[in-house]
Amino acid sequence: MYADPPKKILIIDILDILKKYSDENHRLSQKEIADKLKNEYNMKVDRKAIKRNLMNLIDFGYELEYSESVRRNKNGEEVTMCSDWYLIRDFTDAELRLLIDSLLFSKHIPYSQCKMLVEKLDGLSNCYFKSKVKHIRNMPESMPENKQIFLTIEILDEAISENKQVAFNYNEYDIDKKMRPRKNSKGEMREYIVNPYQMAATNGRYYLICNLDGHEDVGNYRLDRISNIKLLESKAKDKKKVKGMEHGFDLPRHMAENIYMFGGGSIRVLFRARRYIVGDILDWFGRDVKFFDADEDEVTASVSVCEEAMFYWSMQYGEHIEVLEPARLRERVGTAAKAISEKYKM
């Protein structure tokens, strides 16, 4: 007979084996667990001790699945045998893949921190999942980084929870690919004091939705452009006093009206569009879009959107749409289109 190793060590090692090597498609018998204990942990353990510790794990709240079969022992007595053990995980491989892909396609998380987070998520599955993600390519290390991003998120989360203002510097990139803080009219580093209300992700970027102190309307700032953030003791402005938030803050509506997160008030825009981009229109403007006057090829759409954002969207989809109203936006788009046409005259 084998001597039982210390109970605390044995149960931890068995749990570690289940984490590394088991899932619904890779189930372990008690013999296979015993072999791994012997080969990887230098522990000789009999099957009874293994089964006892597996049952203890279940008693401790771990979700283990196994199959039962009835056999007869040497004395002809019926004995229930347990096999095909595996650990039910908090995340399926598909869920982990979705989380990892979200990180890899993110444009605001620095390469080194993205790599670290992917490794942590990778560790939540088993060895079979690791073999699937080893070929994943992250963004190149040469990409510009703001290593303060997680500190920024932490402080903003605290500020929003405690209804306090924050102060920070806001940066822009120059042709040397380095971020530099914006300056005021005196050439000094400008400090922004804002009333923070919400953080949101869109178009692969993370934004702070807030109100710049001393202004009336809503503003949006990219988190990866924020540096030297600090929590202030002063209370944040009540949302009801901010233009556009008088009746509460509707995040889905805000995101639909600020498709490029420029900020500023929204206007009602009518445009004629080819029907084959209806899906794109819904992706950009949400379900509040109103469609009418449709024929086989075209449809008129009515959206509420930030005027500056709509101008850039019209440039992006200019071949497929025509802005109808308001007249000033239609004129602006037309002028820009003529200027572009002049540049590309053959």
Describe this structure in words.
- The protein is an alpha+beta fold and 346 residues long.
- The chain folds into 4 domains: 7-87, Arc Repressor Mutant, subunit A; 93-133, no CATH class; 149-247; 266-343, Alpha-Beta Plaits (2-Layer Sandwich).
- It is built from 11 helices and 12 strands.
- The chain has helices at residues 7-21, 30-41, 47-59, 93-104, 111-122, 127-133, 149-162, 251-257, 278-285, 307-316, 327-343, and strands spanning 64-72, 78-87, 164-173, 179-181, 192-202, 205-212, 219-222, 226-235, 266-274, 290-292, 298-306, 321-325.
- Strands 3, 4, 5, 6, 7 and 8 form a 6-stranded antiparallel sheet that branches. The protein has a 4-stranded antiparallel sheet with strand order 10-11-9-12.
- A hairpin with a 2-residue loop joins strand 5 (192-202) and strand 6 (205-212).
- Helix 1 packs across helix 3, helix 4 (93-104) packs antiparallel against helix 5 and helix 10 (307-316) runs parallel beside helix 11.
- It is elongated and about 95 Å long.
- The mean pLDDT is 86.
Radius of gyration: 29 Å
Which ranges are low-confidence, i.e. pLDDT below 50, for 5 or more consecutive residues?
Answer: none
- Helix % is 25-40%
* Overall domain count: 4
N-to-C CA distance? 91 Å
Shape designation: elongated
Structural class: alpha+beta
Q: Give the helix tally.
A: 11
**What fraction strand?**
25-35%
Let me know the largest β-sheet. 6 strands, antiparallel
The beta-strand count equals 12
Summarize the helix and strand pattern as letters.
Answer: HHHEEHHHHEEEEEEHEHEEHEH
Mean pLDDT: 86
